[in-house]
Amino acid sequence: MTKETAGSKSNKAKKNSTDYNMLELGHAITDEITEEFRKCREIYNKVYDEDEYCLVRQPATDCLINNAKRYKYYGWLYLPKPRPDQMVWLYNKRLDQFVKMLWVLPSAARMAQLASTQCIVPKEYARMQAWSVAFYKGTFWEYIRHESKIDMPSEHEFFLANREELIKAGCNLPDSDDSKAFDFSKISVNKVEDPTKTIFE
């Protein structure tokens, strides 16, 4: 039996004209997110000794399949860098409890719209608007800590506060001069396939 590829699933989704019930779809997505966060917690409980850490859901688009979107779930010891379409929970390992949802950011376009509007938004968008405004003002982590009554640092703040100790321990901070440009001459045109083209054997 042949495993269905992401490309064939993408083509099937493009041809699907089914009219879905949005409420049912929302429930199905919520159930799936909850299950993925549970799996993520089981993995990172074995990795981290700290009582509390963040659980993050971050999407990634596919550079070859334009209608495919993948989600990455991971644990993070600090407040992660805020990004569009991101969901972050504070998890307590000792209590085995999702303590609070720290933020859910919408798409980049919706963030910009919420941050720039002078109108009062519907109640369900009020927190999202506040997060978006804080994001553009550059006060995001301060706002999150104030709103959620936590004192967890961001990764950047943690490294700055412990810079000397980390260097002494052998953790060299990366130098921007170390990065090497990608050699585009290694790509030949005949090796790049059209992602929307279906190949039949």
Structural overview:
The model is unreliable at 189-193 (pLDDT under 50). The chain starts with 5 loop residues before the first helix and ends in a 33-residue tail after the last helix. The chain has 201 residues and is of the alpha+beta class. The protein has one domain. The protein has helices at 6-15, 22-45, 108-116, 126-137, 140-148, 155-161, 163-168; strands at residues 52-61, 69-76, 87-92, 97-104. Helix content is 38%, strand content 16%. It has a four-stranded antiparallel sheet. It contains seven helices and four strands, in the order ααββββααααα.
The helix fraction, in percent, is 25-40%
Number of strands: 4
Order of helices and strands: HHEEEEHHHHH
Main sheet, how many strands, which sense, barrel?
A: 4 strands, antiparallel
Alpha plus pi helix count:
7
Overall average pLDDT: 78
N- and C-termini, Cα separation? 15 Å
Provide the number of structural domains.
1
Uncertain runs: 189-193
Structural shape: globular
- Class by helix and strand content? alpha+beta
Q: Radius of gyration, Cα only, in angstroms? A: 21 Å
- Percentage beta strand: 15-25%
Strand arrangement across the biggest beta sheet? 2-1-3-4
